[in-house]
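Hi all, posting the design record for the shared folder.

TITLE: backbone redesign
STEP: 1 of 1
STRUCTURE INPUT:
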């Protein structure tokens, strides 16, 4: 049996109280997402966002790509961590949530560091590939059905020493359930098997709903 502590809300609060304070607009956006009820689960966890900021800072990254902007918490967190000449390219097919995200980006005064695109994820990254764009960090957090395609394109869009991060790769723990038959669990299992077969350096962190980290 491996040695891992159980992390409850008390411990998470303790971690927060011993980490960098959240930006006021991050707090405002979290409160907004809370008001969404069931859909609030779509946002990455605060610890995941803090971890992404840490990775951006220690690597001096300047360019990020996000597939799955939603209301903007992860994109905003990336933009806040980037230097003034850094930028995030954020893709989501949903015009409504994108408008909400842009409103928060403007409020946090980081909108000049963020370019959003309302489009199907695959179409958008095909275009980025065609235009020979490259990124330091790519966060995949959109439809699970397309994860393998997103990942394969991301390998081509990633700079040397760059990172690909993928959310939900433990899928509430269901990926290790041999009896699981639902479509999305099967997709996530196929995705994890696919990543395992690639030569890239990778690791699945038990953070949030499972956070795969790959380094090129
Ligand atoms: C889990 S949420 C992203 C959460 C976001 N990263 C955050 O932390 O707040 C997934 C998003 O992917 C978007 N999405 C789903 N299918 C998509 C597709 N085919 N192309 C682009 N975006 C898609 C949804 O509209 C949704 O906003």
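Okay, here is what came back for every position:
SEQUENCE:
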């Amino acid at each position: 049996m491996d040695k891992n502590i159980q992390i409850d809300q008390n411990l998470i609060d303790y971690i927060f109280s011993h980490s960098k304070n959240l930006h006021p607009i991050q707090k405002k956006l979290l409160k907004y997402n809370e008001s969404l009820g069931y859909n609030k689960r779509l946002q990455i966890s605060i610890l995941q966002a803090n971890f992404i900021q840490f990775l951006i800072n220690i690597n001096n990254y300047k360019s990020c790509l996000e597939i799955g902007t939603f209301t903007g918490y992860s994109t905003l967190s990336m933009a806040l961590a980037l230097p003034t000449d850094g930028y995030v390219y954020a893709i989501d097919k949903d015009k409504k949530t994108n408008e909400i995200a842009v409103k928060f980006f403007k409020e946090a005064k980081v909108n000049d560091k963020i370019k959003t695109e309302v489009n199907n994820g695959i179409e958008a990254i095909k275009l980025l590939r065609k235009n020979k764009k490259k990124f330091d960090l790519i966060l995949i957090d959109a439809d699970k059905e397309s994860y393998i395609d997103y990942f394969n394109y991301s390998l081509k869009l990633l700079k040397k020493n760059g990172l690909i991060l993928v959310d939900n790769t433990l899928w509430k723990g269901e990926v290790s359930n041999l009896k699981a038959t639902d479509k999305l669990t099967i997709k996530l299992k196929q995705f994890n098997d696919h990543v395992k077969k690639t030569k890239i350096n990778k690791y699945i962190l038990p953070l949030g709903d499972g956070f795969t980290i790959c380094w090129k």
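COMMENT: Helices lie at 9-17, 24-34, 46-59, 73-81, 95-107, 121-130, 147-157, 183-197.
Let me know if anyone wants the other runs.
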